[in-house]
Write a structure and sequence with these properties.
The chain is an alpha+beta fold and about 150 residues long. It has one domain: Sufe protein. Chain: A. The protein is about 45% helix and about 20% strand. The protein has a four-stranded mixed β-sheet with strand order 3-2-1-4, covered by helices on one side. Helix 2 runs parallel beside helix 5. The chain is globular. The termini are far apart.
């Protein structure tokens, strides 16, 4: 457990200092703005889908270290995955943090590192904001999502 906690801290700091895929995408096929009015996280997730594959994923905006690093890891991890794979990882990630808290045996280490967030319930929305934006982009196409919906 200490190794996972250390990985979590290193991952958060690394992706917060040097976020990957942090740019406005030219000609995205889908874009969703997501915000967390309670802590001020505000991101736009851009996705370029081609033949059911996420050819590119990027984000812009601002927020806390947890939300920025989660968005960065999400974009890096999901680029090149199919829509079905991305949806499956969204469900696993969301369940890991907001569901029963169990780490799925199929959960890749970089995503499992965020399991530590569940120790801070108020931060779960920070970690899942970009993922909900991506989920909305894949299911609806374009729009806006907030952590205060439903």
């Amino acid at each position: 457990m200490d190794d996972l906690r250390e990985l979590y801290q290193e991952l958060i700091m690394d992706h917060n200092r040097s976020p990957r895929h942090f740019h406005k995408m030219e000609d995205p096929t889908r874009a969703v703005r997501g915000n967390n009015p309670l802590c001020g996280d505000d991101y736009t997730i851009f996705v370029k889908v081609n033949d059911g594959v996420l050819d590119d994923v990027s984000f812009t905006g601002h927020g806390c270290a947890i939300s920025k690093s989660s968005a960065s890891v999400m974009c890096s991890f999901l680029k090149g995955k199919t829509i079905d794979e991305a949806e499956s990882f969204f469900q696993m990630f969301h369940t890991m943090l907001a569901g029963n808290g169990d780490k799925s045996p199929q959960m890749p280490t970089k995503l499992a590192a965020f399991a530590g967030v569940r120790q801070y319930p108020v931060r779960i929305k920070c970690a899942t904001l970009a993922w909900h934006g991506l989920h909305t982009a894949l299911c609806i196409g374009n729009g806006e999502v907030t952590t205060e919906d439903g």
